[in-house]
Amino acid sequence: MSEAKNGDSNPCLQEQRLSFxxxxxxxxxxxxxxxxxxxxxxxxxxxYNIYKERKNNKIRPYMPSLEERIKIKxxxxxxx
Length: 80
Known about the structure:
This is Coiled-coil-helix-coiled-coil-helix domain-containing protein 7. InterPro entries: COX23, COX6B-like, Cys_alpha_HP_mot_SF. Keywords: Disulfide bond, Mitochondrion. It comes from Acyrthosiphon pisum (Pea aphid). Pfam families: COX6B. This protein is mainly alpha-helical and about 80 residues long. About 60% of the residues lie in helices and about 0% in strands.
């Protein structure tokens, strides 16, 4: 399984699949999929910032495990 399709290494797998499915269903019409595409972009930005923070603080692995991501996401949602 490639890394992009592996949920453990890709924290935005669900958002990626939803945006791809929308594009497929709308025959590539991005205007019909803006919410899904924006959600995917936001997800990637969120986890990239987590990755950078952990790397700067020398916390390995730089990308949290699936279990850690669930906790981080829950904490973020409770704080916002």
